[in-house]
Specification:
It is built from 18 helices and no strands. The protein has helices spanning 16-26, 32-55, 58-64, 70-82, 87-91, 99-109, 123-151, 157-185, 190-209, 230-238, 240-269, 275-283, 285-303, 306-317, 319-324, 330-358, 364-379, 382-425.
């Protein structure tokens, strides 16, 4: 226990959940710090589900209740992700001893910013709040990765994180559907639902601050701080495997960002979906599938590399926009999001843990911040192209077909990269 900086283990309960965790982690040889981390991580994940299950409907609220224009939907998809460009900057200042301070900062300026929804009556105001929320989340994610790398060993990391993610998805599905029903009954109920979600989100961040990093916050070697993106370019130039992994992940991301904002508009303008129908297709069907498959993919990640897992996930995702190409009724979206759930179960695991496969010890926040920064980079142009250029020029269905092509290409390239690395290793 000295390695964790703790004096005693957290109190345990002898319920069914406790016995399940004991079977998964104690009997299979996980050390104390993994079980200790899971104690807080599991509870934080449930609280995150309560937050993101409601906030995930914000874009459809903007379109349906606040009558947002197409460019505003592009902005609502792009700008919250564009702020991820700052992630590499924040990561340069993070170390073991100040990790919790960055999480508290993110919690105050992130989830608690949702309290402003008490006063949101326009799509532009909604957009501003969501940008602030995601800017803080860009600070939180590298700090979270530092905890995962330090406290979960390679042998249990995928299993532990996927276990929590599956529980989070269950809560997301339940909360999203309940929120959709409430919004159908009273469209402006988001003014109190989203602030309540923000309180749960802040509580989740607080749970992460209770996790001591293994090593007790031992000081790291001092780093020179020059150009804010110096680590970004240096790591990509030096680690060629990581460079190609992120390049092919970037191609997948383009397909994702071409499809998602267009889908939001498509649901309202073409299919005329109610809130509960949108919530069920987008935020209930995928989580139900992901609840089952995330633990499976998590265990796979403990056995195979994330490159091969990405190839499988991207191949499933290709059928999401392909099905939307033929959608004429609401039920098509449910079929499309079955494929979305199959693919995103794998992406959810690799998005969270994939960069850690390449990262040296104590470098997790740098590698994951690069991954997040590239999300911000593609958000600078992909959603705008989809909605403002491709939609008026070639229409919904051909743009969905372009998304399908990008998913298929990224899957093929990831598989080829896996083969190349496997031959190099042997």
């Amino acid at each position: 226990m000295a390695q964790t900086g703790l004096t005693q283990a957290p109190a345990t309960r002898r319920g069914i959940g406790s016995k399940l965790l004991s079977y998964l982690f104690v009997r299979r040889g996980a050390k104390f710090y993994a079980r200790y981390t899971l104690h807080h991580h599991l509870r934080a994940g449930i609280l995150e589900g309560l937050c993101f299950g409601a906030v995930g409907l914000s874009a459809y609220v903007a379109k349906k209740s606040l009558l947002a224009a197409d460019w505003e939907i592009s902005a609502l998809t792009a700008l919250p992700m564009m702020v991820f460009l700052s992630s590499s900057v924040w990561a340069q200042f993070m170390n073991d001893s100040n990790n919790s301070r960055f999480i508290i900062f993110a919690g105050i300026f992130g989830p608690l910013s949702l309290l402003a929804f008490f006063f949101v009556t326009s799509s532009l105001f909604l957009l501003t709040v969501i940008i602030v929320f995601n800017l803080a989340h860009a600070v939180f994610l590298p700090a979270q990765s530092r905890i995962f790398q330090a406290n979960y060993s390679d042998q249990v990391r995928g299993r532990a994180v996927s276990l929590v993610q599956s529980r989070t998805m269950l809560v997301v599905a339940l909360v999203a559907y309940a929120t959709g029903r409430m919004l159908d009954f009273k469209p402006y109920s988001y003014q109190w639902l989203f602030p309540l979600a923000g309180v749960f989100g802040f509580w989740a961040y607080h749970r992460y601050t209770l996790i001591s990093i293994r090593g007790g916050g031992a000081p790291q070697a001092a780093r020179k701080r020059g150009f804010p993106f110096s680590d970004f370019f240096a790591i990509l130039a030096k680690d060629r495997r990581f460079f190609w992994y992120e390049t092919f992940f970037f191609i997948y991301g383009l397909g994702f960002m071409f499809t998602l904002p267009l889908f939001i508009i498509f649901c309202d303008e073409v299919l005329h979906m109610k809130y509960n129908q949108f919530a069920a297709s987008y935020m209930v069907v995928p989580p139900i599938i992901m609840i089952v498959l995330i633990p499976v993919f998590g265990r796979m990640l403990d056995r195979i590399n994330p490159i091969r897992l990405c190839a499988i996930a991207f191949a499933f995702l290709a059928f999401w926009p392909l099905t939307l190409c033929f959608a004429t009724e609401v039920w098509y979206t449910y079929v499309a999001f079955v494929f979305y759930g199959l693919g995103m179960a794998g992406v959810y695991v690799t998005w969270t843990l994939g960069a850690l496969y390449f990262a040296p010890e104590r470098e997790a926040q740098k590698y994951h911040s690069i991954h997040i920064t590239l999300v911000g980079l593609r958000a600078c142009f992909a959603p705008w192209l989809a909605v403002l250029v491709f939609k008026p020029l070639i229409g919904f269905r051909l743009t969905f077909l372009l998304g399908f092509a990008l998913f298929a290409v990224s899957a093929a390239l990831m598989f080829l990269l896996h083969i190349r690395i496997s031959r190099t290793c042997t």
